[in-house]
Write a structure and sequence with these properties.
The chain contains seven helices and four strands; from the N terminus they run H-H-E-E-H-E-H-E-H-H-H. With 161 residues, it is α/β, with parallel strands linked by helices. The chain has two domains: 121 residues, 3-Layer(aba) Sandwich (type ii restriction endonuclease, domain 2), CATH 3.40.1560; 31 residues. Strand 2, helix 3 and strand 3 form a beta-alpha-beta unit. The chain starts with a helix and ends with a helix.
C-alpha cells in the first residue's frame, strides 16, 4: 500500500494477490472487521468476486481507501483459503462522461484499471451478460417517459429555492 501511495510501483493485481497469498498463513492471526462487501459472487468453478459500488466521481483520497479495502478483502479470503481464486473490484454504475470513456485522474496509480475497475456498460454486462447495460437504459427511458409528469411535479418544489 505504501509503495502505491508514494508511486514507487504501479498497481498490479496479480502480483498483489500473490504477495498476500505468500504471507496469509504466517504470523499471528488478528481479528479484523473489513468493510462490508456490496456484491458477493461465486462462479461455478469457485472463483470469488467481491465488489464495492461507488459514486461516479470519487475524490483522490477515496481511491486510496478503496484500494486498501480491496487488499483487505483479498487478505481475509486468502487467510481462510490460501488457494482461493479471488477478485476484488470497484464498480461505478454509470459513466457521467458518456459517450466519452470514463476518466478520473484521481484513480491514477492506485487501481489496476483492467482488473479492479468496472464502469457502466462493463459493470452491468459483467453482472447480467452482454447487452444488460443497454436493456437497463431502455428500462430507465421507458419509466422516465411514463412517469414524466410525476417526476416534473416532484422537482418543481426545488426550483424556487
Amino acid at each position: 500500500m505504501d509503495q502505491l501511495t508514494f508511486a514507487n510501483v504501479k498497481p498490479n493485481k496479480e502480483k498483489e494477490i500473490e504477495i498476500i497469498r505468500k504471507v496469509c498463513q504466517k504470523g499471528e492471526m488478528r481479528k479484523v472487521k473489513p468493510t462490508r462487501v456490496d456484491i458477493y459472487l461465486e462462479s461455478k468453478n469457485n472463483e470469488i468476486y467481491l465488489i464495492d459500488i461507488k459514486t461516479a466521481k470519487p475524490n483522490k483520497g477515496g481511491f486510496k481507501e478503496f484500494k486498501r479495502t480491496l487488499l483487505e478483502w483479498t487478505a481475509v479470503v486468502l487467510a481462510e483459503n490460501p488457494n482461493a481464486k479471488v477478485n476484488t473490484l470497484i464498480a461505478i454504475p454509470y459513466n457521467p462522461y458518456a459517450p466519452k470513456p470514463y476518466s478520473r485522474w484521481t484513480m491514477a496509480g492506485m487501481l489496476d484499471l483492467e482488473k479492479e475497475l468496472k464502469v457502466a456498460e462493463n459493470f452491468w454486462d459483467f453482472l447480467g451478460g452482454s447487452g444488460s447495460y443497454q436493456d437497463l437504459l431502455v428500462c430507465f427511458e421507458k419509466i422516465g417517459i411514463e412517469l414524466r409528469r410525476e417526476i416534473d411535479h416532484y422537482f418543481k418544489k426545488f426550483k424556487n429555492k
